[in-house]
Amino acid sequence: TINSVAFLPDGEFAISASSDQTLILWNIETGGVEFTFEGHRQSVTDLDINAEGTRFISGSSDQTVNVWRVDSLNDLIAWTCSNRAIAELTEEDLAAFRLESAQFSCDVIG
Prior knowledge:
- By secondary structure, the protein is mostly beta strands.
- The chain is built from 2 helices and 8 strands.
- It has a 4-stranded antiparallel β-sheet with strand order 1-2-3-4, with no helix packed on it.
- The two termini are 19 Å apart.
């Protein structure tokens, strides 16, 4: 099941978040899969892409949030809500995803 879809700003690609624990980068023109992102242990429930289309953030039922780089597909920055603590986001990350520090907590994610 696809839970969320977001389009990159160039309009050429989209990313889907699915119950099978993956996120898929789709080529809109061909309908083909460009890359499959794996890293969550449960259903991926939501995603958002930054304005430049270089990174996206995903949330999962496993109570983790991952930041992925679209321009460097193997570069994953991940943090988890284990022990009810989240690694601090930089001001750049907060701005890129239009988040405020108070919005970003395990209570919001899980």
